[in-house]
Amino acid sequence: MSETDADDASTEETAAADERAAADGTKAVGDGRVDAVASESETVSERERRGDRDRDRDDVDSAVGDGGLGRLQTDLFVVATRELRTIARTPALLALSAAFALSVGGVAWAGTGGGGGFVPLTLDLLTFVEVLVPLLAVAFGYRSILGDRQTGELDVLRTYDVPRLSYVGGVYLGRALALVAVVVATLFVVGLFVPFLTADIPTFLAINAAADSGVRYVRFVVLAAAFTLVVLAATIAISAAARTVRTAFALAAALALALVLGIDTALVAGLASGVLPESGLAALLAMSPNSAFRGLVLSTAVGVVGGAEVNAGAPLLNGVGLLVWLIGSLAVAVWRVWPAVEALEE
Fold this sequence. Notes:
- By secondary structure, the chain is mainly alpha-helical.
- The protein folds into 2 domains: 64 residues; 255 residues, no CATH class.
- Helices cover 82% and strands 1% of the residues.
- It contains 15 helices and 2 strands.
- Strands 1-2 form a two-stranded antiparallel sheet.
């Protein structure tokens, strides 16, 4: 082969290589354009999906309320619905509710209430409600928030950015609806039998027909519901603050004991020893939920016993005392349920 032929062959090979390189480059550019277009399409699609989600949330917020208030209410009702389902699937709570109903019915049947009228029935059930409602509220509430913390559900809820107020409010609302329904329904059913069980000759507690009416018993039932809400709020606060079942149970048992015996016993001892002044007795009684509840029942639902008006402290102070316990307990629960986001970031 001559030198000229070799140069021509080399030139042809170089030209062919350049053509292949150009073709590969064109293909690479084409693939790059395809990838860019695909990536841009995915970005647009993701933006559309994000916009759809935002519009869905806006629709929910506008359906329930405006802005943060709408979301707050939505989360609260969702948590409350979950609590109601949890209670309905807990046999122990259902059994305790049935035991409470049977016990109230037994006291009404065995006591003088069923045969004496509404006021005697109220007096028969007053102490019983003071003792059993705190125990029932402790059973309903002492593991309400602690259970979610131990199972990890509390951490899952926090990933959805559920506000603390919505969560605690939902837990309290769901448990309160169930507990108050048990207490109120039981007391109302018992009260329905009074007209059929009342003796022909009324007792000295119900000589005055105006002093023994169904309206007074309705007041007692309403006050019992309020007392139930207060005790449940205190139990929810304990569940939010505790980190172990043993601690929660110990604190809840101490709360029940203090409500039933401790606070009233301390007041009596203080008055007997002269440590507490008698002039401030009304304010001191309002500090105890049981004493405040008892005073409101005696002053508004009983009123007159044996022709004499009952002196049961200051109704206004008693009402304020129960309200302070309710708001304070829920505030503690919201504060202690989990740390604020700002504290975690620091």
